[in-house]
Amino acid sequence: MWAFGRVSGFISLALFTASVLLGILNRSGRPLMVLPRFSISLLHRNIALLATVFLGLHVGSLLLDSFAKLKPVDVVVPFLGSFQPFWQGLGTVALDLVLAVVVTGLLRHRIGQRTFKAVHWLTYGVWPVAMAHALGNGTDVSSGWFLLLAAASAVALAAALLWRLSPTFLETSAARQGNHP
Amino acid sequence: MTAILHIDWTSCDGRGLCTELLPGVLDRDDWGYPVARGKSGRERTDIPLRDADREAAQEAVSLCPKLALSLQERMEPARESRKPGR
Q1: The domain that contains B43 carries what CATH number?
Q2: Are A180 and B30 inside 8 Å of each other by CB?
Q3: Burial class (CB in 10 A: 0-12, 13-18, 19+), A26
């Protein structure tokens, strides 16, 4: 359970990183090589859902693990844990926010674009919180491959974010800025 | 029953997903916005669909990132676009 809990946490984090990257790419309106825009949209959603499944496995397996000493209340209420309550609490915060994002994402057509979008912005907060939880609470931080994964994810997301903030982010930005041939 | 694809222009941001899913119905202008092929006036906002396009239109409605599309059913038979003598 201990090993499974750790591995599922890493997989979940890596999948969430991929989903956030695809979400940013899709926001620009560009297709990705052979992938059309609607496929990116579906991939973004399905990878996020898969990441949520692994997040459920991560929390569920550690809940059953005797070494992690998780109490059911730690799943919902942050900062009450017995082992490193702050870093573990960040994981709880991320879980709660992810659930909010997933539920509003699935109910997008019912709750409307404004509410969906407001909650969806939370993902930019979830990712650093989840990464901090992995770095602060994880017991594999000293291993090279984990640091490599974390660094690559952080660099990729930072680059995507800078790109998003740049004036040429939108596929149609040239035309929309009036530089039309 | 004719299916009508309605575009809410106040929501549309020209992200281009619908033009990929309905290439025979929608063209894309230089700003990214969907333009109904061969239609003019009101039929650019309420686009009558052939039955073959209905499923793809449903996909476009559910995938539109801005929730700008909706499918409506019109009860009366499709109007002739051009009446004889006009």
Answers
A1: 3.30.70.20
A2: yes
A3: buried
A2 touches chain B (CB under 8 A): no
- Look at B17 and A37 and tell me if their CB atoms are within 8 Å: yes
Q: Which residues of A touch B21 (CB under 8 A)?
A: 38
1-40 of B, contacting A, C-beta below 8 A: 11, 14-17, 20-21, 30-32
Per-residue model confidence as pLDDT tens digits over B45-70: 888 888 888 888 988 999 999 999 99
> Is the distance from CB of A102 to CB of A45 less than 8 angstroms?
no
Q: Which residues touch A101 (CB under 8 Å, ≥6 apart)? A: A48, A119, A120, A122, A123, A126
In angstroms, rounded to a whole number, what is the distance separating the alpha carbons of residues A125 and A176?
Answer: 30
- How many folded domains does chain B comprise? 1
Is residue B80 assigned to a domain?
Answer: no
Residue A48 φ then ψ, to 5°: -65, -40
Contact B12/B68 with Cβ under 8 angstroms? yes
Among B17, B31, B32, beta carbon nearest to A38: B17
| pTM across the whole model | 0.82
pLDDT, residue B85, reads: 62
Q: What is the pLDDT of residues B35-48, one digit of tens each?
A: 988 888 888 888 88
In this prediction, the answer to ipTM > 0.90 reads no
B81 lies in some domain: no
Query: For residue A138, what are the contacts with CB-CB under 8 A and spacing of at least 6?
Result: A6, A9, A146
Q: Do B15 and A37 touch (CB under 8 A)?
A: yes
Compute the nearest-CA separation of A156 from chain B (Å). Answer: 23
Q: Are A164 and A173 in contact (CB under 8 A)?
A: no
Domain membership of residue B37 as a residue range? 2-74
